[in-house]
Request: fold
Amino acid sequence: MTDGPYSVAVLIGSLRRDSLNRKMARALEGLAPSSLRLVEVPIGGLPLYNQDLDHEPLPPWVEFRDRIRKADAVLFVTPEYNRSIPGGLKNAIDVGSRPSGHSAFRGKPAAVISVSPGAIGGFGANQHIRQALVFLDMPTLQQPEAYIGGAGSLFDADGSLVKEDTKAFLRQFLDAFAGWIERLRS
Reply:
């Protein structure tokens, strides 16, 4: 283990302030073991990736890339849009992985949680992100998989996670992720 908790950059695929995914990310912060420090790295203000700007990157790109580079690992918390990755999250992946050969993501341990009010829990988005992570050379936690369906009933009016079985599963997921990071970072 490092001298302190592992720093985990959390990328939330939904840009909406009160999204179920943002609520889930907040719940995960509170459920994380002491060996993990989860910190959101916002993606909503990132200008669209444009390869023409690789030689003079925009300041928000530079700041985003620096925050990813400083993190020990990355956790993706995402909804599914049209059976795939939300555009804002895909843009963040593109911004962080460029210019070619200088990816801020390379080698970072990763995990994916998809959250949806639907029954299949964002399976398509989860799998599409995993496909991109293979190319980005991000060793990704395989088990337990985290497809959180029925998310509309998981939170109270204040946004707190209320389902004890979901809390137990998420603790198991986060413990596995902490172990994954430890194995890869030591």
Summary: The longest helix spans residues 164-185.
